[in-house]
Automatic annotation (TrEMBL):
<feature type="domain" description="Peptidase S8/S53">
    <location>
        <begin position="267"/>
        <end position="588"/>
    </location>
</feature>
<dbReference type="InterPro" id="IPR015500">
    <property type="entry name" value="Peptidase_S8_subtilisin-rel"/>
</dbReference>
<dbReference type="InterPro" id="IPR022398">
    <property type="entry name" value="Peptidase_S8_His-AS"/>
</dbReference>
<dbReference type="InterPro" id="IPR036852">
    <property type="entry name" value="Peptidase_S8/S53_dom_sf"/>
</dbReference>
<dbReference type="InterPro" id="IPR050131">
    <property type="entry name" value="Peptidase_S8_subtilisin-like"/>
</dbReference>
<keyword id="KW-0645">Protease</keyword>
<feature type="compositionally biased region" description="Basic and acidic residues">
    <location>
        <begin position="1"/>
        <end position="12"/>
    </location>
</feature>
<keyword id="KW-0378">Hydrolase</keyword>
<dbReference type="InterPro" id="IPR023827">
    <property type="entry name" value="Peptidase_S8_Asp-AS"/>
</dbReference>
<feature type="region of interest" description="Disordered">
    <location>
        <begin position="1"/>
        <end position="20"/>
    </location>
</feature>
<comment type="similarity">
    <text>Belongs to the peptidase S8 family.</text>
</comment>
<keyword id="KW-0720">Serine protease</keyword>
<feature type="active site" description="Charge relay system">
    <location>
        <position position="324"/>
    </location>
</feature>
<feature type="active site" description="Charge relay system">
    <location>
        <position position="273"/>
    </location>
</feature>
<dbReference type="GO" id="GO:0006508">
    <property type="term" value="P:proteolysis"/>
</dbReference>
<protein>
    <submittedName>
        <fullName>Subtilisin family serine protease</fullName>
    </submittedName>
</protein>
<dbReference type="GO" id="GO:0004252">
    <property type="term" value="F:serine-type endopeptidase activity"/>
</dbReference>
Amino acid sequence: MKRSLQEVRGSHGEPLLVRSGSGKMHPGLALLLPLVLAACGQTPSLPSEQDVVLTGGQAQVSYPSSGAWQVSEIEGDWLQVSPQSGQGAIRLKFDVRGDVCLERSEPYTARVTLRTAQGTTTALKVRYDPDVRDFLSGAAPQSLTLNRADVAIGPSVVERRAGAPAPRALLVRYRSEAAARSGLAQPLSLGSAETRTVRVPTDNLEADLARLSQDPDVESVRPEPLLRALGEVIPTDEYYRLQWAFPKLGYPRVWADMETGAYSNPVTVAVIDTGVRYDHPDLEGALLGPDEGAMDFVDDGCGRDRDPTDPSTPSRARYGDSSHGTHVTGIIAARFGTLGSTCPGCSSSGVVGAVYRAPVRVLPLRTLATNGFGGLEETASAIRYAAGETVMVNGAARRLPESVAATVKVINLSLGGPFTDPRDIALLCDAVKVAADRGIAVLAAGGNEKQYGNAVNYPAACKGATAVAATTLAENDSGWTRAKYSNTGPYIALSAPGGDSGNSLNGQELNGAPFPDMIFSTDWMYTRHQPRYSALEGTSQAAPQASALTALVLAKGLVSTPAQAVERLEQTALDLGPAGRDEEYGHGLIDPLKALGIAP
């Protein structure tokens, strides 16, 4: 008897981590198959069980055989095995299916049953860990990515607030005007309605408060509230310095205003896009999940279901190693401060979003596939769904939970197309009309086709939608100009920063070079399956800034309806270009301070 040793290797010739039928593990080595060969040429026996680990999305196994064989069963819809039958030597190739979406970080497992004509059965336990995938290759999209290890971050300016001093007076309301006149202080100068309230200075707050509370002539007494000069909230997040649009728009004052507690109305922004990465630590707590109405409308192998994760696919590299929906969402709602958990070598604080402490959350609705394209019907259904209508998903009626539908006040559409067929336009615009008629603000990217014919972009041009153009920094009196790619037309209603990769006027540096005027936000690196941050440009980046501000106006209760919130943005916008509304900027650049009633 003679023992033949057969190695199992991956697609690049690397030894795989496998296990023999005895259960003994051989880390880092090829499997040693105990194939017993009879001296007289008997058919070799196969192991009853074997583990196979895919590296780079692929693996191969080989066995000696002299007869017919067949793969009789594959348990795992993500796995492709070829060939599935043959004669003689067995050579099996394992691949992650090219049309499958990998939406989770946990290992994927499958079971493959191999049978021979001699009656031998082998159970192959196949495992694929997305965290070690290396099948993605190719150029990234036109974006800039920071690796924390090679970025020099200057010190942040942190707002330092001293503890508030004790009140210096009491506001005492007497039961009668006569009692008030007999008090030890002068009545407040607040009109006849407050003639029974006097301000009583105090050097001993607790004692005077106790004494006046016992006075039978006193109806109520309380410490006089103190106001303070509003400063600025300057985030300490590591990459905030690259988010030039926020300070340029005055957001540090907006964030300081939020600390007064004035933003108390819950608002949900439905982001209809490529989906989002729930596992990005900078979005923790900002997203509504599957049980709260999140939905995937894309029929691309992931299935239309309640998980709108922007997934990985083996062919994703052709479309860029980036998550558009995650980038858009971060502009609105990336968290402030230290992150709970992150990847080795990654930033512990990242970036910030516009809404800070306001009760604004994002409802992810996936309608664009990993190639960045989506069907009209999928997007129209998502708009109607976000508006509270019942829609059919995989043959089942789906409707937002009532508690969530009541808070969806804004829909962000960083997507679009130059449609010309009236039927296509009607399909999309009818959905926008449903949302608008139900009192939801629909803000849509104006389009990036100015240099390529400036075709009208839908749904931005739909009646009921608010089209947002992109601006960037300029060396002129206003400091702003239209980004060269941004569409123009009578449908443009507002403008917001979308950036320009060709300029570097923001004053920051990246790796020793001027940082381009692009919009920096959360992203995902599929090649390493980890969070990242990147800079992108476009009206896709402008629209969520307008959506976030609309949500903040509603959260602060400055208006009653989303339509009024959009009108307030238009009325308070910084007029750029010709006086009044024009086809480049619409009503002008969003002005958060004026829209939110904050003194400059």
